[in-house]
Amino acid sequence: MGRAEKVILAYSGGVDTSVCIPYLKHEWGVKEVITLAADLGQGEDLQPIKEKALTAGASNSLVENGVERFVTEFAFPAIQANALYENQYPLSTALARPLISQMLVEAAAEHGADAVAHGCTGKGNDQVRFDVSIMALNPDLKILAPAREWGMSREDAIAYGEQFGLPAPVKKSSPYSIDQNLLGRSIEAGSLEDPMVEPPEEVFSMTRAIAQTPDEPEYIDIGFEKGIPVSLNGEKYQPVALIQTLNEQVGKHGFGRIDMMENRVVGIKSREIYEAPALLALIIAHRDLESLTLTGDVSQYKRGIEETYSQLIYRGLWYSPLKKALEGFIQQTQHRVTGTVRLKLLKGNATVVGRESPYSLYAPDLATYGSQDEFDHKAAEGFIYVWGLPTKVWSKLTKESNL
Ligand code: ARG
Questions:
Q1: Ligand 1: lining residues by beta carbon, under 6 Å
Q2: Which pTM value belongs to this model?
Q3: DSSP three-state, residue 162
Q4: Which fold has domain 364-398?
Q5: Which CATH superfamily is domain 177-294+336-356 in?
Q6: Which of 93, 136, 219, 391 sits CB 3.0–4.6 Å from 186 for a disulfide?
Q7: Ligand 1, residues 126, 180, 264: which to mutate, most atoms within 8 A of Cβ?
Q8: What does the pLDDT look like over 161-208, one tens digit per residue?
Q9: Which residue, judged by its Cα, is nearest atom 5 of ligand 1?
């Protein structure tokens, strides 16, 4: 008896996921492996990958486009939440995992599979995100993760694949581990494992080096409706096109790089390089529009929610009840987050230089230092008396008691 009869395998075309195909069949006794390659805007032709899976022994090789769902159902809510893990990482890789899991679970139902599989190893976050998302979406499905158990080195894996007609990679493989989709790129390993080594220019592809960026600033007006980006410079864009256009424009000015030490779910610290030009610019702009349209207490309270929400996404809990509950709060705050934010792009910076909204809470007559001032200055005195009273009483006692 094998570990499963029919498996849907998340497939990227890389060495590990390719080797999973013969491994599942020959070592784990799986009768049928169907691969699923998800197009999430990684800008790669998936047709050759489809062929490769069949060569490696897959009975069927599915290629599915999920990029529209990726943007509207995953990126947009994350932007509304200003989601940044550990204050820096906009979760471009993490957000893709619950969607790929959903695609796997749907394919399993459609093709009558009793298991789904992925090629993640046992050290990363992605295995956690896949496993937890899959069990949340269909608790009855088996989850197989051969690369977590097989104990083969990369060389071993290549040699194993060759026995089953999988050609060894022709190009000298890159020393980096790279994950890429429409929202960004994550780069790890190679020389980057030394936290003191500056990332070489070759690891970047969505953002230009500062030396190559224009000398003149460029301004871009981002329009939001209910917290969702809908236009650039006054022109309406479909969700995917908006991200693509913004990636180009912002990346051209060298904005969107992150170099950070990150705390993984499995307890390891790792050095991560990211580039996510559009996503980061959108979060900066969205957060600014919130500062114009939300009351101070909602904004401040939301920051705590955002932190938790970001941790939940990072830690694979997209489909958890807490994530859903926080989503309710976030959506409730977005009804008036409509308006335009102007960003100035120059030499690696994206700076907010203007904002407007039909729901602006900024009242010039209250804020002005000029003659139109309508703020009741006398009211301040009584307010300060009450506001400071507990501190005053406390301090009196401090003086008397010396404590
Ligand atoms: N550390 C990042 C994250 O957890 C990126 C993981 C990228 N995966 C990869 N195979 N390079 O989201």
A1: 93-94, 125-126, 177-179, 186, 188, 262, 272
A2: 0.95
A3: helix
A4: 1.20.5
A5: Argininosuccinate synthetase, chain A, domain 2 (3.90.1260.10)
A6: 93
A7: 126
A8: 999 988 887 666 688 889 999 999 999 998 999 999 999 999 999 999
A9: 186
Does residue 245 register a pLDDT over 70? yes
* Residue type (1 letter), 109: A
CATH, range 6-67+90-163:
3.40.50.620
β-pair partners for 271: 261
Amino acid sitting at position 105:
V
Ligand 1: distance of its center to the CA of 269 in Å?
12
Q: How far away, in angstroms, is 124 Cα from ligand 1 center?
A: 7
Domains of the chain by residue range: 6-67+90-163, 177-294+336-356, 364-398
With bands split at pLDDT 50, 70 and 90, how would you rate the model's confidence at 276? very high
Residues tagged active-site: 16, 97, 126, 177
Test site for ligand 1: of 125, 260, 314, most ligand atoms within 8 A of the Cβ = 125
Q: Check if the beta carbon of residue 135 is closer than 8 Å to that of residue 108.
A: no
Angle at 44 between CA 163 and CA 116, to 5 degrees: 55
Which residues lie closer than 8 Å to 1 by C-beta, 6 or more apart? 29
